[in-house]
Amino acid sequence: MVNQNGEPDFAIIATGVARVVADRLGAAVERAGIDDIRASYGFVIRALSERERTLTELAELLVVTKQAAIKVVDEMEERGFVERVPDPNDRRAKAIRLTDRARVVRKAALAESRRIERELRADLGEQDVLAMRRVLLRLLERSGSLDDAAAGRSRALW
Fold first, then answer.
1. Which of 11, 53, 83, 86 fits a 20 to 30 Å CA distance from 119?
2. Predicted confidence (pLDDT) per residue in 44-67, tens digit
3. Closest listed residue to residue 20, CA positions, set 31, 10, 12, 8
4. How many domains does the chain have?
5. 44 is in which domain, residue-wise?
6. Residue 21 is part of a domain; what is its CATH number?
7. What whole-number distance in Å separates Cα of residue 64 and Cα of residue 70?
8. pLDDT at 1
9. Residue 130: inside a domain, yes or no?
C-alpha cells in the first residue's frame, strides 16, 4: 500500500526494515561460519546471553508456550547451540545454557547491528539517527515493549 503522496505506508516500511536487518544479521552469522541457524534461534540466544535459564523462564521471557520453547530448544541442542545442565537452584530442573557456537552467533549479530547503525550515521548524520532511534523507542513505549528493548530482549516472532 502507498499513502496519498505515493510513498509506502508505515507498516510496509517497518516490516521492510525488519527484513533488511534480519537478512544482514543472517549474512553476518554465515560469514562467521555458522550456516544452520534459524531466525527463532536468535531470540533464544539473545534471551540466554545474560545467564542460563530454565525452560519455563525462557518461555515466559519469549512470550511463547512452553511447548514452543521446548521445540526450538530441542532443535538448538541437536545443532550444538545450547546445552541442558543441572539447575543450581533446583536439583529437579535443568537449565539451558549457550554453547561457544551460540556465542559466535551472538558476537557476529551484535557486530553487524552496530555496523548497520554506523553506516546510517555516515549516510544521514548523527541527528537523523538519533531522531530515528527516538521514534522507534517511542513506538515501543506506546506498545508496552520499551522495557524489553531496554533490557536487550525482543519477543519471539515464531
1. 11
2. 999 999 899 999 999 988 888 999
3. 12
4. 1
5. 10-150
6. 1.10.10.10
7. 10
8. 67
9. yes
Residue in 74, 77, 96, 70 with CA at minimum distance from that of residue 85: 96
DSSP string, 105-122: HHHHHHHHHHHHHHHHHH
In a domain, 80, yes or no: yes
The residue behind cell 552469522 is 29
With the C-alpha atoms ordered 86, 90, 96, 97, is the resulting torsion angle positive or negative? negative
The predicted model scores a pTM of 0.86
How far, in Å, CA of 83 to CA of 79, rounded?
10
The neighbouring-strand residues paired with 90 are 87
Query: What's the pLDDT score for residue 89?
Result: 82
Q: Spell out, as residue ranges, where the chain has pLDDT lower than 50.
A: none
What is the chain's percent helix, strand, coil content, to nearest 5?
A: 65, 10, 25
How many Å is the maximal CA-CA distance in the chain? 62
* Three-state DSSP class for residue 146: helix
Which residue in this structure is represented by grid cell 541442542?
77
Provide the edge-to-edge strand list for the sheet that holds 90-98.
53-54, 90-98, 82-87
Residue-level pLDDT at 34: 97
Contacts 24+ apart (CB under 8 A), 90-94: 90/54, 93/54, 94/54, 94/55
